Amino acid sequence: MLAGTDGMDSERRVEEAGAMMKELISGLEAARVSSEEAEQLGDLGEQLREIQQDVNQQAVQDANQQFVQEPNQVAGRSARTRRARERISRSRRARRAAKSSKSKDAEKE
């Protein structure tokens, strides 16, 4: 009886292995891509690359434009700031001069 059981176990293993092979082959066939599908995927990949390049070029252009504008804006601000500081300095000097002339006039009296 033991010999008969070993034969049945062996047959069952062979059947299971055959079923697993069929399942594996079926999965591989389902994953297979036709040449037409492969070409379409290649075209899609090329379109995506072109879009990405366009997006990157636009981002670089925007960054360059911002870089060019910012120094001009900063230069404009510093010129305005310089002029404002000069006006403040002139008005301070004028106040000091007026104050000192008033004090000199007060000393004379």
Large-scale geometry: rod-shaped
Kindly state the number of beta strands: 0
Output mean pLDDT.
80
| Global Rg | 44 Å
- How many angstroms does the end-to-end distance come to? 142 Å
Largest sheet: none
Q: Structural class, from secondary structure content?
A: mainly alpha
Please provide the ordered H/E string of secondary-structure elements: HH
The total count of helices amounts to: 2
Fraction in beta strands: under 5%
Overview of this structure, please?
It is a single chain. This protein is an all-alpha fold and 109 residues long. Helices cover 95% and strands 0% of the residues. The protein is built from two helices and no strands. It has helices spanning 2-31, 35-108.
In short, what is this structure?
This protein is mainly alpha-helical and 109 residues long. Helix content is 95%, strand content 0%.
Key words describing this protein structure:
single chain; 109 residues; mainly alpha; 2 helices; 95% helix
Write the layout of secondary structure elements.
Blueprint: H1 2-31, H2 35-108
